[in-house]
L,D-transpeptidase family protein (Janibacter indicus), 399 residues
Amino acid sequence: MIRPLRICALTLIALLALAACAGGDAATPSASDGRSSSSSSTTRDLPPAEVKVNPGQGAKGVMPDDEISVQVMRGTLDEVRVSAPGGASVEGEVQGQTWTSSSRMKPGTTYTVAVTAEGPEGGTSTQKSTFTTHEPEVTATYGIVYDGQTVGVAMPVSIQFDSEVTEASYRKAIEEAVSVKTTPQVEGSWGWLDNRQLMWRPKDFWAPGTKVTVDAPLTGFQTGKDKWVAEDHSGTMTIGREQMAKVDIANHRMTVSRGGQQVKSFPVSSGKPGKDTETRSGMKVVINKQREMTMDSSTIGIDKGEPGYYKVDTDFNVRVTWTGEFVHSAPWSVGSQGSSNVSHGCVNMAPGNAEWFYDNSLPGDPVDFTGSGREFLPTEGIGVWQYSYGQWQEQSATA
């Protein structure tokens, strides 16, 4: 009777040992093969989904315009979140069991990819991996000019970069990423005034009261050699009343109209004859205003001691070019206003007339100059209206 009991005991011990051998944990996928490391528990003790993330765990120097992809090899994809400190995130799209990024990344930033998926036998887990984007030599900056302002009917949407966007492919990518929305809807086109200024102008002058919104999600876009943008911007502007000034250089007169009706006429004196002093003809746009300033010809290349040098304090200054042309008060030339051109290129007005024009002007008001043989070049100011609409469309990087 004793021997059978011993046999049963040995059998029981063997069965327990076998059960212990069969009870080990499932292996976690290795990060080195692009699969994410799992940092969560499943709802039941079941094997997690097999997930492959690119860039792989711990990758460094990832370019901001590289694509992120998440693929569930075994299991079902539920959700992907790509985030960074400070609230930065990357959007993406799902096709089947693959998620692919649809926006770019901020340079010099560590991102975490969190993938929630259902395992092949059920149970949900979240697996995480991290990588770091390339730290560029230079961070590019840009701004939306006139954001939040009420402007005149000739003001384009203007995105200005801190330096030239050097390659045509960079300009094209940037232009395709930005957008303009108007209320009411308006036909218009993007174009590059130069390699630093991307502008959107309507086919014709804006209608008063138009609301304009611009979206420029340019994080992760390249503008030059190892130079990348690290922020998004958006902006708005509202189109004010319709006002246009016309300066007849040859006949020494400025007229101002509102809604197509003339409201003012002023005698003026423009730039005296000469290659550096004659006032330019063309459709200019008010850039900004400054109540008081010192005009110094050295800022436009005429230094002290050279012929034509001047340095004078002026009031009621309305800028219309980047090359030194203003409409401003000039009490010293009142005797010439209406009869001859004696200035260094600006439009001289009597103090009271200049004050009225200053008070009633907005950035973006058109000022049409005629009557001289010197042409205003588009890059000398807000020169989008020097082009026909068809010519402006050709300034687009996508043309």
Notes: The chain has four helices and 29 strands. Confidence is low (pLDDT under 50) at residues 1-43. The longest strand covers residues 124-133. Residues 2-21 form the longest helix (20 residues).
